[in-house]
Design brief:
12 strands, NAD(P)-bd_dom_sf, disordered N terminus, oxidoreductase, NADP, 10 helices, alpha/beta, Rossmann fold
Length: 293
């Protein structure tokens, strides 16, 4: 388990706005900031259209910290609808960052491992060149650059393989399928770091509370596993006997290419004295009951 208990022991002040508050991460982000003492409001796209610059400016006024959890996350659909994904992931991020800058707020932009090509063999450092191989990755990379250029007071927090209680995700899908089938086939040639939304929200709280300098940070659990290995951990936690067989990514022929290696390093966190999230397997044990409930 990581050294930062959940909820965080740090104390926040000021007003926070969480955009995309009804999403899987957004729900836990609102809860974490509120538990730490911040005054928190959460909005979704029905209440704040981030693709509208004027609406973004009006929406962020009066807040000290703006956390952008809103995103187009339909990876395969983005291949055919890149302009629509770009409007949310890049233009929307830019609008929020500019609005936050104009009103004196810090912007926290959630990004992704998909900004990297995923051909590495060592954890990606924070300043590694971005080389996205999918439309979704391109739009998120553009969002990162837009935020950096638009607001000097920014935190770009990349994450990967997110799961939580508040939305559809890999563990929930695997548990459902494991209850229906005797054998599951899950890819074993993609590596990453399963990350609980509760832990990511806690990390963001700790980064802001620490007064972390503007920059890019990696908000993933420690360690590494394949999707196949994670599926086996889900079966164990759910008490299911389904056998998990390996299969290659090529067998699934997804429209959008996935990074084969999505392991992110945590040097920037350590440099500012903020502990990274703990090992994925230990954090999954802590999360499983609530996620699979």
């Amino acid at each position: 388990m990581n050294t930062s208990a959940t909820p965080s022991s740090v104390t926040l002040s000021g007003r926070w706005l969480v955009v995309g508050a009804h999403g899987m991460l957004g729900q836990d982000m609102v809860a974490a900031a509120r538990a730490a003492g911040a005054e928190v409001d959460g909005v979704d796209r029905q209440h704040l259209d981030i693709t509208d610059a004027a609406a973004a400016l009006a929406g962020v006024r009066g807040y000290d910290v703006v956390v952008n959890c809103a995103a187009w996350t339909a990876v395969d659909a983005a291949e055919d609808q890149e302009a629509a994904a770009f409007a949310v992931n890049a233009v929307g991020a830019q609008n929020l960052a500019r609005a936050a800058a104009a009103t004196g707020a810090r912007i926290v932009q959630i990004s992704t491992d998909y900004v990297f090509e995923g051909h590495g063999s060592e954890p990606y450092v924070e300043d590694a060149p971005m080389a996205p191989v999918s439309a979704y990755g391109r739009t998120k990379a553009a969002g990162e650059w837009a935020v950096r250029a638009s607001n000097p007071d920014h935190l770009v927090v990349r994450t990967a393989w997110l799961y939580g209680a508040g939305g559809p995700n890999f563990p929930k899908t695997m548990a459902r399928l494991g209850a229906e089938r005797d054998v599951l086939t899950v890819v074993d040639d993609q590596q990453g770091q399963p990350t609980w939304t509760v832990d990511l929200a806690d990390l963001i709280v700790r980064l802001v509370a620490a007064g972390a300098p503007s920059g890019t940070y990696h908000g993933t659990a420690s360690g590494v596993v394949t999707w196949n290995g994670f599926a086996q951990a889900v079966m164990a936690a759910a008490g299911l006997g389904a056998r998990v067989e390996p299969v290659s990514s090529a067998a699934f022929a997804a429209k959008a290419p996935r990074p084969a290696y999505s392991v992110l390093g945590h040097d920037a966190l350590r440099a500012v004295g903020v502990a990274p999230i703990g090992d994925w397997a230990e954090r999954w044990k802590a999360a499983a009951a609530s996620v699979l409930a």
